[in-house]
Amino acid sequence: MADDVMTAPPLASETLESAVTTGAPNRTHFIQQQTLVTVVLSYQLLFSPTDALIAGVKEYIVLGLLLLIIGLMVLPARVVEASWFPVTLALGDTAITTVLIYLSGNASSDLYLTYFLIIVIASTCRTLKQMFILSIIVCGLYGAVLYMEEGGNDAPLESHFLRIPLLLIMATFYGFTTETARRVTQEKSKLLLEHTVLTNYDSLTGLPNRRLFTDLLDKALARALRNEQLVGLLVLDLDDFKRINDTLGHTMGDLFLTAISTRLTSCLRKSDTVARFGGDEFGVILENVSSSEHAARLAQKLHTTLAPSLSLGGHDVVATASIGIALYPLDASDPDTLIKNADTAMNHAKTQGKNAYQFFKSDMNVRAVKRLLLENNLHKALEREELLLHYQPQLDLNTGHISGVEALLRWQHQDLGLVPPSQFIPVAEDTGLIVPIGEWTLQTACARAKAWHEAGFPGLVVGVNLSARQLKPQYNFVKLVERVLHDTGLDPRFLELELTEGMIIQTAESTMTTLHELRALGVHLSVDDFGTGYSSLNYLKRFPLNTLKIDQSFVQDCTTTSDGALITKAIIALANALKLKVVGEGVETHDQIAFLREQGCHVIQGFVFSRPVPVEEIVQLLRKEPNPSAL
């Protein structure tokens, strides 16, 4: 929703630093503990006999203990918060306390040993129950020592009993400090491990991510350089993965990626490395590659491994992949360039029909740069008003009139000249620019059709090609069509939206709803290039179609081969049985016109009458007198 506030997640390093700072004891904690030690030791010194070894300097010792507290106040934060600091402080206090108690004359060797045992036991305590048991042991040990020393010490008896709670306090302090040190160390180790995993591994699949993959590749290249070996790098991209997310949902898409990662890992050697770069892209490091043929066999093995279908939520899904291969040191000498070249080869494999592998070639970089240049220029084409429409007329075989025109997009670049649609349409599809370009095409074609109607050519239908991306729910295509028709004043009956057979076969239920809503507006729908996809009579029945356009490959064979004639005849018969208008595309000869008319085709479109022409020439063709006998 528009009102939602999006915030960026904290960085892993920030989370680590925050967690460590929160879990670690702070400076105030240590000052409080050291103050406690100072109080206990000061008490011991004050009750020391007058003939003790430190009788003349005990005031200075107390002052030194106070200075130690002040030192804790000014120590750098990095020292106080270090993992080793609590242990060091505890050991230091133990040594100082033990020595001072002994030198003060308040303990015989037996009492000194007792105190030492108390410190050792306290260091092992981790729970309140353990501390309670320790309290009993402390009192028992101290009482036993007092009993053995009865009459041998000049100190008042009450001073001995007062030491019991003080010793308990000291034992608790050391136990707490030691446990705190343990906990802080464990927390830091855990956080460091989590940080390492977060930084270097993909959270979904558990595979190394691109960062770790690059480091591993760098090490693999170093080994290959020492051993004079080849390293193969494969970049693998799943074909049409977006369709799985769109049709089955992102949860199923995640399950699909996890299953694919398992398959990839299972078919590789232990010396190989597979990583997920992100999305549906994976990388594979092949060490000890003997030749390019070796790398090709491994790529074929990956294709074979991916071939069996996967069951996702009751749907059988087939995975295919386009793979790019680059070899070290033949194609690059550093990790980044090697990955880039393998990625370039993968993109080339996609353009060659997908589900294939392709080795990198130096001229691919030239094509990649040209495509990037084309993409950058296409972003500015609308702004610069470089796009235009040509129109190819469609002739009614019964009347000889032009019954409609198909709007065909063209790009007149200021430097590149007229760019063929076969070059820029795929780029527009991949980048999403097809959506704003498609909106401009629809607006321009409808406005032009309305102008022709007002100029005395009523009933002329304009056909506009659609992209599958335009029909996605987020673009609200029905609302766009409603707005364009309202703005231009064009009657919906004279707008025909053309979909390819492949678009219809792969369509989701949401697209089906969109098509029915368009049909309810009065807009006509046609299926283009019929017969080239996986034709299904079922979709002809389910979809609200008005027109079926026979692909030009069948039309061109209809008078030269018996198979071409039979297929074209069957398509026309099917369309007539379903009460669909039939348009023959790519008509180039009068023999083809005669065949199509004889079989019951209604409309033709092709070079035999006119190529796609600018808007000015369409008007001239419209003004010609119809001559059915000439067709």
Itemize the secondary structure elements and their pairings.
Layout: H1 12-23, H2 27-46, H3 58-74, H4 77-80, H5 85-103, H6 109-124, H7 128-148, H8 157-200, H9 210-227, E1 230-238, H10 241-248, H11 250-266, E2 273-278, E3 281-289, H12 292-306, E4 310-312, E5 315-317, E6 321-328, H13 335-351, E7 357-359, H14 362-381, E8 387-396, E9 402-413, E10 417-419, H15 421-431, H16 434-454, E11 461-465, H17 477-488, E12 495-500, H18 501-505, H19 509-521, E13 524-530, H20 537-542, E14 547-550, H21 552-557, H22 562-577, E15 581-585, H23 590-599, E16 603-605, H24 615-622
Parallel strand pairs: 6-7, 9-11, 11-12, 12-13, 13-14, 14-15, 15-16
Antiparallel strand pairs: 1-3, 1-6, 2-3, 4-5, 8-9, 8-16, 9-10
Helix pairs in contact: 1-8, 2-3, 2-5, 2-8, 5-6, 5-8, 6-7, 6-8, 7-8, 10-11, 14-15, 16-17, 17-19
